[in-house]
Amino acid sequence: MLISIGLPSTVPDTPQSSVLDWAREVDQSGFSGVATLERLVYDSYDSLTTLAAAAAVTTRAKLLSSVLLGPLHKNVALFAKQVSTISKLSGGRLTVGVAAGSRPDDFNASGVAMAGRGGRLTRQVEEAREIWGGARRGFAGAIGPAGGPQVLLGGHSAAAVDRAARIGDGWIAGGGGVDMFRARAEKFRSAWRDHGRPGEPRVVALSYFSLGATAGDLADEYLLKYYAFAPPYARMVRDTTPAGAAAVRETIERFAAAGCDELVLSPCSHDIGQLAALRETLHR
At 144, is the pLDDT very low, low, confident or very high (cuts 50, 70, 90)? Predict the structure, then answer.
């Protein structure tokens, strides 16, 4: 199982230097790649812009959005061009994770209706792939740059899992623990086969982590605030987040046993000492 690292781009008050320091350190440390979360109405950095910055300061690490909120990117042509630009400038290191979204404030701030967002996401992915394939869009021809990344679809609902199996190159699970991942991953793989998709899909999961003497406090402070819009879900995410070295190692082992291809470990603090502690934890 590959291990990637979430950048602290959604941790409030994260300095610009910390985001880029994390990216550089991951690039040099042997982890598979770096990942970003997307949220609009929150003290956070924009996901695509952060990935572009990370691409500029790295040479080896893969890049992953885990996940973008597809319906908020209403101009699909512009979205497709931004994504293909990052993919091209990074030498093909980008994978796009995208989902329908669930927070009303993000949709309200964007002037986008939540109703029908699943269908819009499907059409967005299909249109983006047409653009990446070089479809003409005007007298000058294609939008370019040609080519695009793999697309992973996120979401835990039955409709989201089926959508990923129908049109995605794989499925990406959000924070929610190993048991939730295992159950949805089994349904996703079954739906993949039912839709007659060839080969084996890529299955990715996200788990937060926290290390050090104040690991529990750091996880409480960040996660219960980040998911405060849905208190029961916030509590579940916090309860399934490993705090401490032993819990982190156990979580990684359980995700691997559940058939996860790549696990994104996302920090609860922008302190880069968390990354050093994670390396030490994994090498014990």
Answer: confident
In sequence order, what are the beta bridge partners of 36? 65
Over range 186-203, report the average pLDDT.
97
Distance separating the N- and C-terminal Cα atoms of the chain: 17
Taking residues 167-182, report their average pLDDT.
Answer: 96
Name 259's Cβ contacts closer than 8 Å, sequence gap at least 6.
Answer: 182, 185, 203
Q: Is 17 left (phi over 0), alpha (psi -120 to 50) or beta?
A: alpha
Q: How confident is the model at residue 146 (pLDDT cuts 50, 70, 90)?
A: confident
Domain range summary for the chain, segments of one domain joined by +: 2-283
The full DSSP string for 104-169 is: HHHHHHHT--STTHHHHHHHHHHHHHHHHTT-B-STT-B-SSS---EEEEE-SSHHHHHHHHHH-S
State the CB neighbour count (10 A cutoff) for residue 161.
26
Report the DSSP beta bridge partners of residue 5: 34, 265
Q: Are 106 and 39 in contact (CB under 8 A)?
A: yes
Continuous H helices in the chain: 16-29, 47-56, 76-89, 104-110, 117-132, 158-167, 178-194, 215-226, 231-239, 245-257, 273-283
CA 283 to centroid of chain Cα atoms: 25
Q: Is 219 helix (H, G, I), strand (E, B) or coil?
A: helix
pLDDT averaged over the chain?
A: 96
Q: Where residue 266 falls among pLDDT bands split at 50, 70, 90?
A: very high
Calculate what percentage of the chain has a pLDDT beyond 70.
100
User: CATH classification of 2-283 is 3.10.105.10, yes or no?
Assistant: no
d(CA 207, CA 173): 9
| Alpha-carbon separation of residue 126 from 31, 76, 81, 151 (angstroms) | 31, 10, 14, 10
